[in-house]
Amino acid sequence: MRRVVFNQKGGVGKSSIACNLAAVSAAQGYRTLLIDLDAQANSTHYLTGLTGEEIPMGIADFFKQTLASGPFAKKGKVDIYETPFDNLHVVTATAELAELQPKLEQKHKINKLRKLLDELAEDYDHIYLDTPPALNFYTVSALIAADRVLIPFDCDSFSRNALYGLLAEIDELKEDHNDGLEVEGIVVNQFQPRATLPQQLLDELVAEGLPVLPVNLMSSVKMRESHQVCTPLIHLDARHKLTQQFVELHDLLNAAD
Q1: Rounded distance between C-alpha atoms, residue 157 and residue 56, angstroms
Q2: Domain boundaries in the chain?
Q3: Around Cβ 50, how many Cβ atoms within 10 Å?
Q4: Sign of CA dihedral 104, 138, 255, 185
């Protein structure tokens, strides 16, 4: 299973969802890999505690190899970082990804990530891809390489308007590059069940026939605490309600595996 977590809108909890689903996967005994494709490296920091120059080159080094030429150029290798959590590994991101992007676009390296994942799939049960909040080279590469896409959504009108365009773009990419890509669904994040507007918006999306998943992730200060100590919720507080929502979401998404 290769799942990309993506929304072009920032602040919807994309990295938090990718990391916590990956952590639940690993805690359940699946050999799990998260690939961080965002130059901000939030997922890298969250799962490793590393910052700045402490972070290994990871995915940036892999993409640099794809640009190298000559008989002695190293090709297609990637360093994988072992997190403090059993069964959970990370291919780290660094700020250098932003500098590499125009070169990769110019050289048409859009299928290199898919080839890498074909190799890594032999060693991992579940692979998660965290993407930048933009439809750029790295996100398109991830959508081409993945077989499933999960769309985080926070309940406001700006997110709703962006959602329609996002679904259309995924359909177009699926038709042109990856006909096996499946939109698993829209997961509502930072949900406030007692507030009228979020529930009304959610009901309208369901009525429109959009693939809204039945598990909503609540808004909680526990998530911020989790970020601060670089510990996914399943390891920070397994009994917390938000943790259990992540477990329920994970099990729902992987029920057919």
Answers
A1: 39
A2: 1-253
A3: 16
A4: negative
- Tell which residue, 210, 208, 42, 209, has the closest CA to residue 130: 42
Which CATH fold topology does 1-253 show? Answer: Rossmann fold (3.40.50)
The span from the first CA to the last CA of the chain, in angstroms, equals: 8
pLDDT digits (tens, 9 = 90+) for 174-199: 999 999 999 999 999 988 877 777 78
**Residue 157: its pLDDT value, please?**
66
For position 72, what pLDDT does the model report?
47
pLDDT of residue 35: 98
SS3 (DSSP) at 1: coil
d(CA 90, CA 34): 5
Record the pTM.
Answer: 0.94
- Burial, 176: exposed, middle or buried (Cβ in 10 Å; 0-12, 13-18, 19+)? exposed
